[in-house]
């Protein structure tokens, strides 16, 4: 009996030795001044309830967020994941391909009628094409499949669809983002860049929970970072109007050119702000 007890104690001692040794080998160096123990559980703040009877005025606009502008670069960087931070497009890819928590819609389906299948989304983000090359042994031309993966550095802008609403019950103007679409360059068969276009649409209210679980770099205070959802709700981005709903259903680019497009966009924005201001009497 004593022999069995000694063998058991010897086995336990060996196990404890190897566990402590392996944990010592895997111990990492603290990258920072303190251990971050607080992992907040973020909940999406619901929009204030809005009745149709209280909607006194509403307009629908489509805007473009240009990632070349400095204020919008927090949506573009980092193009590679560092320090547990991701760009907005990396977060979208996680929701589409890994989690399946959000749904993509067609390039012209900004009314969210027909969702894209998983295979269609994969074909958009991993574009496959056939190219002709030469066999090194025989010298004959052969067809080779080429896969071009869309990454964060390929994204040039985001297109958003918004409703500007004035609630007479609260005497407050709301801006609700209805949809968002990443935009990247479209090339011809010769490899020439044709322009920057959206490739699919996302229903923004469906994306809010996903966006609310990823932080955005805060250049003023790294200890107090905001999420992508908070960034959009607090309007910490710069954009200009591409189109407002009108009787002709035409975009600003169809009747204004060059600098006149930006001036027309600012004119529409000022019109919205002046309308809210004129509703008050002093």
Describe the fold and architecture.
The chain has 282 residues and is of the alpha+beta class. It has a domain at 57-124 and 158-278. 29% of the residues lie in helices and 28% in strands. It contains seven helices and eleven strands. It has helices spanning 2-26, 73-76, 88-99, 118-125, 204-211, 228-233, 259-278; strands at 55-66, 104-105, 126-134, 141-149, 155-167, 172-187, 193-198, 201-203, 215-216, 226-227, 240-244. Strands 1, 2, 5, 6, 7, 8 and 11 form a seven-stranded antiparallel beta sheet that branches. A two-stranded antiparallel sheet has the order 3-4. Strand 5 and strand 6 form a beta hairpin. The longest helix has 25 residues, at 2-26. It is globular. The model has no long low-confidence stretch (mean pLDDT 83).
Q: Which characteristics define this entry?
A:
single chain; 282 residues; alpha+beta; 7-stranded antiparallel beta sheet; two-stranded antiparallel sheet; globular
């Amino acid at each position: 009996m004593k022999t069995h007890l000694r063998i058991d104690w010897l086995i336990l001692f060996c196990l404890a030795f190897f566990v402590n040794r392996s944990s010592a080998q895997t111990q990492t160096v603290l990258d920072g001044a303190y251990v971050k123990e607080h992992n907040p559980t973020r909940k999406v703040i619901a929009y204030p309830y809005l009745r149709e009877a209280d909607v006194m005025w509403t307009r629908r606009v489509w805007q473009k967020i240009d990632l070349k502008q400095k204020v919008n670069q927090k949506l573009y960087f980092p193009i590679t994941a560092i320090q547990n931070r991701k760009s907005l497009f990396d977060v979208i890819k996680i929701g589409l391909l890994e989690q399946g928590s959000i749904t993509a819609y067609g390039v012209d389906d900004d009314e969210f009628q027909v969702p894209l299948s998983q295979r269609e989304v994969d074909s958009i983000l991993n574009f496959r094409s056939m190219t002709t090359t030469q066999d090194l042994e025989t010298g004959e031309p052969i067809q080779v499949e080429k896969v071009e993966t869309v990454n964060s550095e390929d994204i040039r802008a985001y297109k958003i669809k918004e409703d500007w609403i004035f609630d007479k019950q609260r005497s407050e103007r709301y801006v609700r983002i209805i949809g968002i679409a990443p935009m990247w360059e479209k090339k011809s068969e010769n490899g020439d860049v044709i322009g920057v276009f959206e490739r699919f649409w996302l229903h923004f209210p469906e994306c809010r929970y996903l966006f609310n679980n990823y932080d955005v770099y805060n250049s003023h205070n790294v200890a107090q970072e905001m999420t992508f959802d908070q960034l959009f709700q607090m309007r910490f981005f710069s954009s200009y109007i591409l189109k407002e709903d009108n009787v002709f259903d035409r975009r600003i680019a169809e009747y204004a050119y060059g600098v006149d497009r930006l001036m027309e966009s600012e004119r529409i924005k000022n019109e919205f702000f002046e309308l809210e201001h004129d509703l008050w009497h002093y």
